[in-house]
User: What shape does this take?
Amino acid sequence: MIIFLLIFLSLYGGINFYFYFKAKNIFYFSGKTEIIAIIIITFLLFAPILIRLAEKFNLETMARSIAYCGYLWMAFVFLFFFVNVSMDLTRYILQFFFKSFGNTQMRSIFFGLSILLSLSFVSYGYFDAQSIRINKLEIYSSKLSPDFEKIRIVQLSDVHIGLIIRDKRLKSILEHVKDSKPDILVSTGDLLDGELDDVSFEAGQFAEIKPKYGKYAVTGNHEYYAGIEKSLEFTQKAGFEILRNESKKVAGINIIGIEDLTGRKRGLTEQSPGSFKLFPKEKINEFILLLKHQPIVQEDVNFDLQLSGHTHRGQIFPFILFVQIFFPMNSGYHELSNNKFLYISNGAGTWGPPVRFLAPPEITVIDLIKK
Assistant: This one.
């Protein structure tokens, strides 16, 4: 965590001071104005740490206020960096043909355009993050039991209930789940986020949803960041049966839930969980649904459909380009070898900035249909 914080603060600090020096060259800060600007930038830089400290001391109102300021700024300054770098490259190219593009006035105009575009993208992303999409998927299989012509599975992933995703935002997500009329509801990790002291009301909102064949969940990395014991307690109160390297046969299908690897890295779960024994060694005439938070595929195990999340599709473009380095399959539906399928949800919530830009939030409705 210390290494992560150092890397994060170095990169994020560099982007913040990139904005500061760009602004200084345009507006020529000096004296008190420069000091005030540096103080504000420093406060916004350390806002994520201040949020966690406020949460630890149960100062929820303060933590939420800092979260909105700090995280919206984070979205803005990230977008400004990419936009302004693109603008500068464009201006340098145009400068070869038109020397006037190198003067102070044109630099000011391009800086202003970068600010305007970044603010527009953040505003759009803020409202788009609250506009849940329903992605529908039909999978035909001869492995379904004769007693079930169709089973509707609704996948929730990466809700990140915390300072920002609660109240109206969470209510909207859950209304979409209810409207989808699931036979089975699954959560593929990162249901909870942060260190909120009391999330019993939010658990009660989930508990109101009672699909015919139950609700099943697996852990994500943020369940460990928020505190694994508290996260498991919340998930159970929300009405989910948690599958931690376990399987459950329901409605004629076999649901296998794999513990997130963050637990093994932190030494909180056994290093060799023996999850392979959960899978049949040979293909059988039984539909196997695999729940796994991170979209890492084990080609040597038997399953029919893997549901994952974790990536958020980058959440704010162009971060998808960096996500692809670690997860080449990072969003949507993928046909794998040996008649296996993978679906990676964009997630219904947000982590950090309450913004989604070109990575819309979603709930996935999967209809398993008897072939």
Remarks:
- The first helix runs from residue 2 to 27.
